[in-house]
């Protein structure tokens, strides 16, 4: 098929590579414009999709908007059979949605209609969902409201957002190749009316650990916000907890208190024990190693 691919971050890269490997003709890759980045934060840095497309010899376009008539005409001029969208980052106007013969298919990182919106992976983890997945959806004007062609699930157990996103990107690549291999076998089906939830964009304030919550919920914060890492503050420094395990205990204490030399932390209900931590500007390390140079004594209250 003649395909326009539309994506931006690492999540989208496996799908682009899989479509090419499956023998489809990717006539153009649309992605976000290069942004300032690099070590100094000033050099213009191409997106992962742009870098991959260029390596594969695929033409790249990165318009700041698709609302203009000229951009919409350029899109239509590719005469694509279908557009495949994976975390592109721009709203597609109706003229763009209608241009490909088979419309636009989205690789969405949830089991729709649960977690429509911007942050489905993190929201699934925070909510304690036992499973999530990817849905291949026929796009329409609404926010992830289009009919579904295919869905594939995976478990979420003790996976960080980074690990789960990487897994879902591979699952989505497999799913889109399967669907495009025989579109007639995967006819669009309307999403259920029941079970709709919205995955709001992550607010940075949510990354601060709330030890007043249960140990399960605190573990959920740690998993959902890695990367970059949920954090607490102590002695004027921000410390990230990248991994931890829940501890079953009947010890009492104020939420946020360090309970023992093993670095157990009291929660509103239960305890957690960090297993991987990180100070600002340092590498991730085991708690014993980190605390050799930064003491957090037993009885300390973390905020």
Question: How far from one another are the termini?
Answer: 55 Å
Q: How large is the radius of gyration? A: 22 Å
Please give the order of strands in the largest beta sheet.
5-2-1-6-7-9-10
**Count of alpha/pi helices:** 8
Write the layout of secondary structure elements.
Layout: E1 2-7, H1 13-21, E2 25-30, E3 35-37, E4 43-45, H2 48-55, E5 60-61, H3 69-76, E6 82-86, H4 94-98, E7 104-108, E8 116-117, H5 120-126, E9 131-138, E10 148-155, H6 161-181, E11 198-199, H7 215-224, E12 230-234, E13 237-247, E14 265-266, E15 271-279, H8 287-292
Parallel strand pairs: 1-2, 1-6, 2-5, 6-7, 8-11
Antiparallel strand pairs: 3-4, 7-9, 9-10, 12-13, 13-15, 14-15
Helix pairs in contact: 1-6, 5-7
Overview of this protein structure:
By secondary structure, the chain is α/β, with parallel strands linked by helices. The radius of gyration is 22 Å and the shape is elongated. The protein has a seven-stranded mixed beta sheet with strand order 5-2-1-6-7-9-10. A four-stranded antiparallel beta sheet has the order 12-13-15-14. A two-stranded antiparallel sheet has the order 3-4. The chain is built from eight helices and 15 strands. It has helices spanning 13-21, 48-55, 69-76, 94-98, 120-126, 161-181, 215-224, 287-292; strands at 2-7, 25-30, 35-37, 43-45, 60-61, 82-86, 104-108, 116-117, 131-138, 148-155, 198-199, 230-234, 237-247, 265-266, 271-279. Helices cover 24% and strands 25% of the residues. The longest helix is centred in the middle third of the chain and has 21 residues, at 161-181. α1 runs parallel beside α6 (161-181) and α5 (120-126) packs antiparallel against α7 (215-224). The relative contact order is 0.11.
